[in-house]
């Protein structure tokens, strides 16, 4: 805005000029400091929320640097159906709850996974071992957190000999 002098004919006082306010095109009114403060707080909150949502890091199997889990079992009364054969452990950098599972396959039917809550799951023998039919079982284990879907998970190979 700027002040534009009025002509003397419009002025009621001789010799003095009155000014009227005129708004120039394209100029917006000044923003108050309070408005700018609220706007900056909203931007900070929005940025924080976006970074929290976008920064989900995937969980990991805790396997002490090994590339796969290899388990050797003997056919014996100690390895009957229902026997606990392994405890899975996982880690999530975001501290989300973990869910362990397995990809469906012919070999995966030999085990049953029971999530115990937290960062662990138990693997039980679900079928009797018969070395005359099959010597080894290759199973793909899965691990997901609450931010991943059923088709978005971390995998780990599990070999049962």
TrEMBL record:
The lineage of its organism: Eukaryota, Metazoa, Ecdysozoa, Arthropoda, Hexapoda. It comes from the Eukaryota. GO terms for cellular component: membrane. SUPFAM superfamilies: Cadherin-like. Residues 67-146 form the Cadherin domain. The keyword Nucleotide-binding does not apply. This is Cadherin-related family member 1-like. The chain crosses the membrane at residues 35-54. The gene is LOC108040034.
